[in-house]
Fold this protein.
Amino acid sequence: MKITILSLFPEMITPILSASILKRAVENNSVEFNIVNFRDFSQNKHQTVDDTPYGGGAGMVLAVEPIFYALESIEGYKDAHKILLSPQGKTYQQEKAKSLLNHEHIILICGHYEGFDDRIRSLVDEEISIGDYVMTGGEIAAMAIVDSVVRMLPEVLGDEESYINDSFYDGLLDYPQYTKPREFKGMKVPDVLLSGHHKNIEEWRLKEKIERTKIRRPDLYDKYIKDNNNQ
C-alpha cells in the first residue's frame, strides 16, 4: 500500500511515521509513505496558500490552486483514493478503516485555516471526520487514519489476532484482559481465564464483550443485536 499525505506541516507527521508499528510497516515493505508540502505548489511569489473569503467573514480560506497542482504532481493520483480531512465529513469508524485496505494508494489532504475553497471537494472521493470537534489542522486526523489502517496490513503486527479482537472490529468493545500477578490488593483474575478450557474462555470473552458494550456503548450494542438478529 502507498499512502500520500498533503500537509503544510510535514514536521508534525514525520516523527509519527518513523516510530513504532508504522516504522516496522515501512521496514518490511508493507507500506510506502510520501509527504507532499502543498505550499510548494502555491501560485504566487509569497507562497501563500490561503486568502480571505469572498462575501466576507472571519479567518482565511484554503485555496484550490495549490491542492490541485499538488495532486497533479503525484504519480497515479487519478486512480488513488483521495480523502479530504474535514469536520463536515462522515465520522470515521472501524468499518471504514477496513474498507480502506482495498485501495492500493490513498491520498490524505490536511487542511488548515478557517476552511476550504469548496471547489477542493470536487477533487476528492470522500471527506472524513474523526469526531464532532474542530482541530487546528488535519494532520492529527490523518495520522489516526494511517495508524488504524496500516496496523491491519499483513505481517505488520505479526499476529492477526492482535487486531481482529480489537474493540469495534466486530462491532463490540474488547473483552477484559489480565496478566500477572493473579491477585493484586484483593483484585483477582477471573477463574475461567486460569482454567485452560479454551471453549469456556471464548464464551466468557464474548459474554463480557456484549455486556461491556451494552453498558458503555448502547448505540453499538443495539446495532450489534439488530445485525445478528437479521442473520
